[in-house]
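REQUEST FORM: STRUCTURE PREDICTION
Request ID: SP-0412
Submitted by: Lab K.M.
Chain count: 1
Length (residues): 107
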Amino acid sequence: MQGIANTLQAATSKTGLTQNNGRINLDQDNAQDGLAQLVLTVIELLREIVERHAIRRVEGGTLTDEQIEDLGIALMDLEEKMDELKEHFDLDDEDLNIDLGPLGSLL
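STATUS: Completed
RESULT:
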């Protein structure tokens, strides 16, 4: 139980949220940055899942050469856009890798 509390405290401190007597308080100065970090983390997680699925399909031989080419271009474009968003919000890959305590890191 203590591990979950520590994980929640670490995650909320990065997102502009603090706990006080069981209540969660929002620090307005950091809320936008924390929300951007959370959203980009979810997008990065989904991007990695899609990329792994695409690799399995390519290795499985179920795609045509044209589909493989289109998929590669789409994945490169998505990665480039993620890099632009991380730069815009002054985040790096480590900022998106949330520590889940006993479960390990998210990404």
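NOTES: The radius of gyration is 18 Å.
Reviewed by: T.R.
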